[in-house]
Amino acid sequence: MIIVLVAGATEDQIQHVIGRVESLGFQAHLSRGSHRTIVGVIGDEEKLQSEPLSAIQGVAEVVPILPPFKLASSEAHPEPSVIDVGGVKFGGGHIGMIAGPCAIESEEQLDAIATSVKKSGAGLLRGGAFKPRTSPYSFQGLGESGLKLLRDVGKKHGMPVVTEVMDPRQVPLVAEYADMFQIGARNMQNFNLLTEVGQANKPVLLKRGMSATVKDLLMSAEYILSRGNAQVVLCERGIKGFDPATRNVFDIAVVPLVRQLSHLPVVVDPSHATGKPGLIPACAMAGVAAGADGVHIEVHNQPEMAFSDGDQALLPEQYESLAEQLRAMADVLGRMLN
């Protein structure tokens, strides 16, 4: 950590800063420049996170050297993490394929979709039992009956399942049926929920919030990691922009950036990012080309009849075509699709 003093800081102010640093058990290294004086703090700066050093008179700025997301950082864990969800792997050269409907509607609907996406090569079945909707009058999901359907259909087809958990009180219930928690964009900074899933021994798919920075996303992952759950997969699903041409802005640069900053796998969700089926294949391919460790796609066999987000779902035959393209790309890149 570096403490930058204001221009013209007095000697008393400088010595007070040094004294405060040393009183906290750290070494202080003073460096005087022609225009600015800085104090280098030597020690475990994580222990200083709660100290209001910027409030000391004469201090202009406190600059951390290590990233605030200690456990999620690539410095803390140089090798890429591989997260295994019921045999489907993300990271370390593995590309996990997640597919299924936005919402679980019926056993017939889910079984038909699972049959098709499994045949196309998807490894993980997704489906929402609890649906966070903008309108309170929209379909909110089937709840526990939907979770039972998801588990049963997943077992029938030999597919682990992932579904969204919206509230800390739902964590034990969802854990009973799902192989992986999903934290949706609206809940990315629900810190009570992050803490709760952090205490559960189950993988977590953490989606980036609609207005969240990369640092925000990694700090949310840090909440989960700090509670003992190291099984976190990040997801870029688009952020809010000014242009209504697409549902969101697909921030493709996040994929290589996260891979530089963190050891955690990162997947892309072009369905939510674009909101347009015609754009999903190209964006999915771009995500894998950029280094994504997985692809999350919404698939529905009758999108015009879907209870939720049918306008951004691929038909089963469209998903099959995309999966073939992704498999060919994975082969070229020397990676494994699963």
Structural notes for this entry:
- The protein is α/β, with parallel strands linked by helices and 338 residues long.
- The protein has two domains: 2-63, Alpha-Beta Plaits (2-Layer Sandwich), CATH 3.30.70.1140; 83-337, TIM Barrel (Alpha-Beta Barrel), CATH 3.20.20.70.
- Helix content is 33%, strand content 19%.
- The protein has ten helices and 15 strands.
- The protein has helices at residues 11-23, 107-120, 144-157, 171-177, 191-198, 214-226, 254-261, 270-274, 280-289, 316-333, and strands at 2-5, 27-32, 37-42, 59-63, 83-85, 88-90, 94-100, 124-126, 161-164, 180-183, 204-207, 232-236, 266-268, 294-298, 336-337.
- Strands 7, 8, 9, 10, 11, 12, 13, 14 and 15 form a nine-stranded parallel sheet that branches. Strands 2-3-1-4 form a four-stranded antiparallel sheet, covered by helices on one side. The protein has a two-stranded antiparallel ribbon with strand order 5-6.
- A hairpin with a 2-residue loop joins strand 5 (83-85) and strand 6.
- Helix 2 runs parallel beside helix 3 (144-157), helix 5 packs across helix 6 (214-226) and helix 9 packs parallel to helix 10 (316-333).
- The two termini are 42 Å apart.
